[in-house]
Amino acid sequence: MAVFSVLSLPAIAHEVVPAIFTLNLQTDGTYTIQSRLNMEALVAEIDPALSDTNDSENAPLYDALRAMPPQEFAAQVEAFVPVWVEGIALDFEGRRSVPLFESVEVSEVGDLALQRLSSVVLRGTIPPGAASFTWQYDAFFGQSAVRVGFEGEEAVQAEFLKAGQLSKPFPLGEQLQPKSRSEVAAEYMVLGFTHILPLGLDHILFVLGIFLLSLHVKPLLLQVTAFTVAHTITLALSLYGFIALPASIVEPLIALSIVYVAVENIVTSELKPWRVYVVFGFGLLHGMGFAGVLTDLGLPPNEFVTALIAFNVGVELGQLAVIGSAFLAVGFWFRNKPWYRQRIVIPGSLGIAAMGAWWTMQRVFGL
């Protein structure tokens, strides 16, 4: 049973994030869909393949919609709904059900450095005699996470889907049961891996920054292990509610951690003893960044620990894949060359530092 909290860390304004749908099956043969998503990005027709809305030619319209008062933007959403619902394919064994608009809730204009997520409620009818259904969200609108449950109860099953991907069939009635431990483990391991490759560019650059100054495997693995242990600690503490920092603080600090590691690579040619402790500290920050993902997508209460461990294993595998790829690309061939530092470490670190600095400016000032 997966829980998608509405108290998740707010996302940075220009980041393209998946829409979250909660589908409740009612005893009267109807269903409701409660969605939580960035409607400004949809109305502005931002390409979901972009990781940053600023990369779209429609970025000015997007920014204008984000600054629009709630009542005014709610009218824009209601006018857009007929186009939007055409991209929601609920198929009950060959019979498509088109949901109808019920309500929209738009938050007040707040910190423009953060996204404004709207809540839209739809309602539809389950065709008589249907035993299962599938969900598909049009690729034009991007990724989606859908959870399914019964009226008045928490969700029983959930699935995270790529843009345009068709879900597995969700059985109706008592057949809808929580996923097994092995299914949960496999699902969250994949989620953890994909959060690094290909989705986690900031985490990828941080790991590459660690890689560039570490010519030997043992100190490299020691730093990666310290990073993993640290983000596991804060991820668990965040999900259990013991610590909480807003994304407006966590995300700029993550970007600064990338800058620090890259700059240290440039100013020193030796791996200092304190590096592992610095990496551990930055790992604590990155763990809170991971928490934003899992809070949005949810962890199954009946297999909470399994999902948490599997997610971290997936993240670790993703990090090792990044390091392995970097080692095969440059480390294996060139790390013992006298020019390795001048031609690879310093230019690579300069690029990483520049990207980290740009992200810091974006995340602080909403550029």
* Whole-number mean pLDDT: 84
Cα gyration radius (Å): 22 Å
Q: Pick out the low-confidence regions.
A: 1-11
Give the domain tally.
2
How much strand? Answer: 15-25%
Q: Quickly give the structural class.
A: alpha+beta
User: What oligomeric state do the depicted chains represent?
Assistant: single chain
Could you give the order of strands across the largest sheet? 5-6-2-1-8-9
Number of strands: 10
Number of H/I helices: 10
Helix content: 40-55%
Account of the 3D structure:
By secondary structure, this protein is α+β, with helices and mostly antiparallel strands. It has helices at residues 39-43, 59-66, 70-85, 181-196, 201-213, 217-239, 247-267, 275-297, 304-334, 340-365; strands at 19-25, 30-37, 88-92, 95-97, 100-105, 118-125, 132-137, 144-150, 155-161, 170-171.
Summarize this structure as a short list of keywords or feature phrases:
globular, four-stranded antiparallel beta sheet, single chain, alpha+beta
